[in-house]
Specification:
Aminopeptidase; four-stranded antiparallel beta sheet; 3 helices; 32% strand; globular
Length: 151
């Protein structure tokens, strides 16, 4: 059985949740960035940003964030679904779809009518109703695809 939990409510502790997320998206130089961002995130009923864990029983098998901006030039768009990760052992079970649906529900519940994401992937998000709208730019200057979904 799979469940979602806000990282701030994780029974294994916020530090363990932060280390997990950082292990998937961080590097040796930016742990303090992720720690600070997640530490100052919101609980399930209090706005943005929010970070989630996907659990199978008590085991962490995935994560994602619902954030204000995903390191992309389009600061006028929000919120962003970011940092989706599913453990390789759990892939092929449509857990990414489940994670997207959870984020869509959460964003809608706090009043947003659209959700955005940026990615280099092509063909995956379209299967789940996401529409590519244009490119945006990362701080490096590299272009990345921007997708949106009506909630």
């Amino acid at each position: 059985m799979y469940t979602f939990i806000n990282m701030k409510e994780y029974s294994g502790g916020l530090e363990k949740a932060i280390k997990y997320y950082h292990s998937k998206w961080g590097n040796k130089n930016n742990y303090s960035f992720f720690c600070d961002a997640i530490y100052h995130s919101k609980a399930s009923d209090a706005g943005l940003p929010r970070f989630y864990l996907l659990l199978r029983g008590d085991e962490i098998v995935g994560c994602c964030g619902l954030i204000v901006n995903d390191f992309i030039s389009r600061h006028d768009l929000l919120p962003w679904l970011a940092g989706i990760y599913i453990e390789e052992s759990e892939r092929g079970k449509e857990l990414g779809k489940l994670m997207m649906q959870h984020a869509e529900h959460e964003a809608g519940a706090i009043g947003y009518s659209k959700l955005y994401l940026s990615t280099f992937h092509e063909g995956y998000y379209e299967k789940y109703g996401w529409k590519r709208i244009e490119d945006g730019y990362e701080p490096s200057g590299e272009a990345t695809r921007i997708y949106t979904k009506e909630l």
